[in-house]
Amino acid sequence: xxxxxxxxxxxxxxxxxxxxxxxxxxxxxxxxxxxxxxxxxxxxxxxxxxxxxxxxxxxxxxxxxxxxxxxxxxxxxxxxxxxxxxxxxxxxxxxxxxxxxxxxxxxxxxxxxxxxxxxxxxxxxxxxxxxxxxxxxxxxxxxxxxxxxxxxxxxxxxxx
Length: 160
What we know:
There is one protein chain. This protein is mainly α. The protein is 72% helix and 0% strand. It is built from 6 helices and no strands. The protein has helices at 2-21, 28-48, 59-80, 84-103, 111-130, 147-159. The two termini are 42 Å apart.
């Protein structure tokens, strides 16, 4: 609001200076009046829309965001029920990042503390599915841990 008023004053002064420079002194009052009317209309518009919720969001945009989130969630669940190679490629990096963010532990700063925190939080069995150093480089097509393990890991991350 303060910016709008400051810009309005600058507009009015600028128009007055312009009319004086062009030596059209008889237009100073009319030009200043038009500039003042524009400023007052904008102030009225801003004050009038202040109590209404923001209408810039379209229902289609919100629906699209929800559809995208649902699609990502379904893909994550499908990958959790797939092979270990899919788990290592897609889920393990995501879970390791979330673990680092949630606990504040960084693998690069102190690998021993990182590993100890992971073992404490998840237990030895689940930590093997989150640990970023436990990737199978042979492209293991064995089964992944499944949806139940993903759910348990995410619940424990939420509790941190």
